[in-house]
Amino acid sequence: MACFDRASPALKEILLKLYRADKPLESDHHLHEFGSVEYHIQSSASYPHHTHLSISTPLLSQGILLSHGLPRYTIEMVKGICSDAVEIVEPPRQGYQLTLRLDFARIPHGKESIKMISEISSVQAVILSSQLKELLMNVNSQEISQGMYRPIKLVYHPREPFFVIKQPAKITAVFPMRFKDNSDVIIATAFFQELMDAGNSQECAKAPPCTWSPIPPPELRGEAIEDLSTNGGFVSFDITSRHVEGKKLDKTVWNLLNFYGFVKYHVKCTRGFIQRRMRKRLESLVEILQKVGIEEDQPIRNVQGSRCMRKLVGLSNSKTLIQRCNFINNIKRIRSRLKIHGFNRFRRRWLTIPKFSSATRYRKLD
């Protein structure tokens, strides 16, 4: 379901350049992503194997305070990233939430180096996914058995929030869908209906049940109106304990975080496919019309077959049609009378207007 790489492509390129450099480089890079994520990569020639990486990113949940730094579970997740070559620096660089010291001397050469640097470049995804993992791991917690909690608003990309609602024996993730173009709404609505049918089929029985509704679900009552104003409806997934067992937890979290991106990718590909089909169809129609025009310009004597067939083909010739239309117009302009033998005598006898005389005669007075 996920279609994006967890590692930051730009950060990965910079770290690989520093790692593969023949001599120590003096560098100071500031990198921005998604409009809200900032990286600071600093290396010095005095310490050729050490590079400092600082990151500032908005937390997934807006309700978590930053006064004490990142949550403990998040720090433990970051420590699990290449623990031999990565070390957390305390306190972090001013203006950033986390600072890492990278020791390139402990990174082996070959394909293993690319793999380790890719894991280091995914630190922002680890920070955000750790918060959602902590929520999903408590899906069977006893403290929520008495009822459901208030929805938790999560923001992975700006202007694309989604909600997580804790319920007995499951956690529901609700995605309000918004699109700029009406055509995108039509494509996405058809996709959601197909996704709901496929998710509830027997072949996808192990997948989280999916539902789509044009109106907000009852669990979101009381939320801000700007969060519930959508034109694409609401997509919900029910996460149970079997969806977060072992390695499934990491996959489930990453799929939920990138659901918005996956839908936009699908809509973009579908729109491009439709445009290509329309363009191809238009080209085929133009080609047919061009062939017809070439055949009309050819002489009629090249047409073989019966006399009727030659007449039908001749009618398709545009020049012939124009000549026939002109001939008909000339016929209509002829205003001569038809001459019928004996018609004049018949008309004088029977079609003359009779002369009526007045019953009252007037007499001229002298």
TrEMBL record:
Superkingdom per UniProt: Eukaryota
Localisation per UniProt entry: Cell projection; Cytoplasm, Cytoskeleton
Key word Ribosomal protein present: no
Family the entry assigns: Belongs to the ARPC2 family.
Molecular functions per Gene Ontology: actin binding
One GO CC term on file: cell projection
Gene3D superfamilies the UniProt entry points to: 3.30.1460.20
Function: Functions as actin-binding component of the Arp2/3 complex which is involved in regulation of actin polymerization and together with an activating nucleation-promoting factor (NPF) mediates the formation of branched actin networks. Seems to contact the mother actin filament. Arp2/3 complex plays a critical role in the control of cell morphogenesis via the modulation of cell polarity development.
Major location category of this protein: other
Protein name: Arp2/3 complex 34 kDa subunit
Record note on quaternary structure: Component of the Arp2/3 complex.
One Pfam family it belongs to: P34-Arc
Key word Cytoplasm present: yes
Biological-process GO terms, alphabetical: actin filament organization
Keyword set, alphabetical order: Actin-binding, Cell projection, Cytoplasm, Cytoskeleton
InterPro entries in the record: ARPC2, ARPC2/4
